[in-house]
C-alpha cells in the first residue's frame, strides 16, 4: 500500500472503507471516469467482507442456468421479505433482487468467478454463488478486488481513519478529515461514500440499542465499530432499525478469536444435535430461529455433525480443522465419546436423518433443503458451536440511489452510503448470502450514482 504521505488533498470521490462495498464502488466509479481514493482505518483491506464464507446470493443468474436451476426474482424477493419479518424496505429489496444476477456477471469481468452454487437458510433454491475452488467467498472476493483496484491505478490507503465529514456553506459534503501516521489531513472531494461496515464489534452501540446482547461474542473483525454511523449522525443523518442485530447460530466461541462456521456447511448436509445426540431444529430455518433454538437448549451450545462426504463439498472445513475446531471420530460411537454426547442416540439420529434424505422428507422438523447426501461416509466430524453477534441489519437510512437521508427524510447532498453501514434492506433478519450480494449490488449503485452526481454538479 502507498504511504499516506502520498495522499493528495483533492479527489473526485472519497470512499471510506475497503470491504466489498467500498472496493466495488471504487472500481465502478473509476470505470465511469472518476478520480477515486479509498481510505481504510485498518492495516489491511477487506473489512468484515473478507470473513464471509457462505456465498453471494443472486437469482436468474447465468451460473444457475448453467447448472439447470430455473429460479425467478419474485421468489427471491418474497423469501427475503419473509425472512426479514416483512420489515425490509421494499424499494431497496426490489432493486437488490433485480440487480443480483447482473452483479455476478459484472464480477466476472474482473476475473472474479463465482461459479459454484449452494443454498442458505430461508431460501428454496441454490442462490449462494461461490468460487469453484471452494475458497471462502469473502476473502476470495476482497483479495481479488483489492488487486483490481490497485491495477486500475486507484489510490488506496490503509491506516487512514476518517474522523470527520466536511461540508461547504450550502451543506454539501465536500471532503473529510483523516487521521494518518503523518498527522491529521484534510482531503477534499465532490462526493463521499461511507462503506465502513456495521457495529457488531462496538460494545457501546450494542449496549445503547440491544443491552441484552452486550455480553455476546462477535464474529466481526475488531474494526467493525460503527464509525460511519457516528460520522453520518454528526450531520443529522437518520439511523434506522438499529435494534435489529443478527446473532449467527453457528460460531466457534471456545477460543479468544471467534470463528464463524459458515451456513454453507449446513447447506451441504450437516445437522445440529444437542447433548442427548438428538436433532432439535430445522437446521436451515432462518438464523433467528436456529439461534434461538440453540440458546433455548441451555446446554453450552450444540454440535454440528457431518461426514467425509459433506466435508468434501465445503472446503472451509480444511481451515477449521487446521486451527483445531474439528473433532474427528472413526465412526459415530467414537465421535460421540469425544464430544460427550449420547452415542446410542446419535447413531439413531443419523439413521433417521439418512432415511429422511433418501425419501426427501424430514418428518421431524420439516427441513426441505441441504438434503443432497446421506451422512454415511466415515470418518465423522463435529464442531462445537454457539450463537454470536454476526451482523447489524440497522444503520444509515439511504434510498435506492444510495443517497443518505437526514432525520427529516431529505437527501444530504454529496453523501452516499452502501453495505452494512446502511439499514433497511434486510428487515429484522438477514438471509445468509445476502450481505455479500448487498456489498456488490449497492457498491456498484453507489459508484454509478457518485459518477452521475459529479457529472451533474459540473
From TrEMBL:
InterPro entries: FAD-dep_OxRdtase_2_FAD-bd, FAD-oxidoreductase_2, FAD/NAD-bd_sf, Flavocytochrome_c, Succ_DH/fumarate_Rdtase_cat_sf. Keywords: FAD, Flavoprotein, Oxidoreductase. Pfam families: FAD_binding_2. Transmembrane segments: none annotated. Residues 12-436 form the FAD-dependent oxidoreductase 2 FAD-binding domain. One of its GO terms (molecular function) is steroid dehydrogenase activity, acting on the CH-CH group of donors. This is Cytochrome C. Belongs to the FAD-dependent oxidoreductase 2 family. FRD/SDH subfamily. Its cofactor is FAD.
Amino acid at each position: 500500500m502507498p504511504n499516506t504521505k502520498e495522499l493528495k488533498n483533492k479527489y473526485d470521490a472519497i470512499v471510506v472503507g475497503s470491504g466489498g462495498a467500498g472496493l466495488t464502488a471504487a472500481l465502478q466509479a473509476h470505470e465511469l471516469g472518476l478520480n477515486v481514493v479509498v481510505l481504510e482505518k485498518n492495516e489491511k483491506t477487506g473489512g468484515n467482507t473478507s470473513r464471509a464464507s457462505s456465498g453471494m446470493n443472486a437469482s436468474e443468474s447465468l451460473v444457475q442456468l448453467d447448472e439447470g436451476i430455473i429460479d425467478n426474482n419474485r421468489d427471491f424477493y418474497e423469501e427475503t421479505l419473509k425472512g426479514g419479518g416483512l420489515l425490509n424496505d421494499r424499494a431497496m429489496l426490489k432493486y437488490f433482487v433485480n440487480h443480483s444476477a447482473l452483479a455476478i456477471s459484472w464480477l466476472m469481468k474482473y476475473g472474479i468467478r463465482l461459479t459454484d452454487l449452494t443454498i442458505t437458510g430461508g431460501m428454496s433454491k441454490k442462490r449462494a454463488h461461490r468460487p469453484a475452488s471452494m475458497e471462502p467467498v469473502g476473502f476470495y472476493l476482497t483479495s481479488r478486488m483489492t488487486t483490481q483496484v490497485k491495477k486500475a491505478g486507484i489510490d488506496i490507503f490503509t491506516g487512514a481513519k476518517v474522523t470527520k465529514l466536511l461540508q461547504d456553506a450550502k451543506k454539501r459534503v465536500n471532503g473529510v478529515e483523516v487521521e494518518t501516521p503523518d498527522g491529521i489531513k484534510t482531503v477534499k472531494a465532490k462526493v463521499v461514500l461511507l462503506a465502513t461496515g456495521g457495529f457488531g464489534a462496538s460494545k457501546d452501540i450494542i449496549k445503547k440499542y440491544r443491552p441484552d446482547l452486550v455480553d455476546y461474542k462477535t464474529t466481526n473483525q475488531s474494526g467493525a465499530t460503527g464509525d460511519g454511523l457516528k460520522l453520518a449522525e454528526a450531520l443529522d443523518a437518520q439511523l434506522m432499525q438499529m435494534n435489529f442485530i443478527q446473532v449467527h447460530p453457528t460460531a466457534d466461541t471456545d477460543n479468544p478469536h471467534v470463528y464463524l462456521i459458515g451456513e454453507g456447511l449446513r447447506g451441504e448436509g450437516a445437522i445440529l444435535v444437542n447433548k442427548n445426540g438428538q436433532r432439535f431444529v430445522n437446521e436451515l430455518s432462518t438464523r433467528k430461529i436456529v439461534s434461538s433454538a440453540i440458546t433455548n437448549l441451555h446446554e453450552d451450545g450444540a454440535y454440528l455433525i457431518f461426514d467425509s462426504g459433506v466435508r468434501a463439498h465445503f472446503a472451509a472445513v480444511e481451515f477449521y480443522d487446521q486451527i483445531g475446531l474439528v473433532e474427528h471420530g472413526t465412526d459415530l460411537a467414537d465421535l460421540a465419546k469425544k464430544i460427550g454426547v449420547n452415542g446410542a442416540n446419535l447413531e439413531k439420529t443419523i439413521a433417521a436423518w439418512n432415511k429422511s434424505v433418501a425419501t426427501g422428507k424430514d418428518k421431524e422438523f420439516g427441513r426441505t433443503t441441504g438434503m443432497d447426501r446421506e451422512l454415511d461416509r466415515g470418518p465423522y466430524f463435529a464442531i462445537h458451536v454457539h450463537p454470536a453477534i454476526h451482523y447489524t441489519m440497522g444503520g444509515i437510512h439511504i434510498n435506492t440511489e444510495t443517497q443518505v437521508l437526514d432525520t427529516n427524510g431529505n437527501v444530504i447532498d454529496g453523501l452516499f452510503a452502501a453495505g452494512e453501514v446502511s439499514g433497511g434492506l434486510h428487515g429484522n433478519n438477514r438471509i445468509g448470502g445476502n450481505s455479500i450480494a448487498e456489498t456488490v449490488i449497492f457498491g456498484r449503485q453507489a459508484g454509478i450514482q457518485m459518477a452521475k452526481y459529479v457529472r451533474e454538479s459540473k
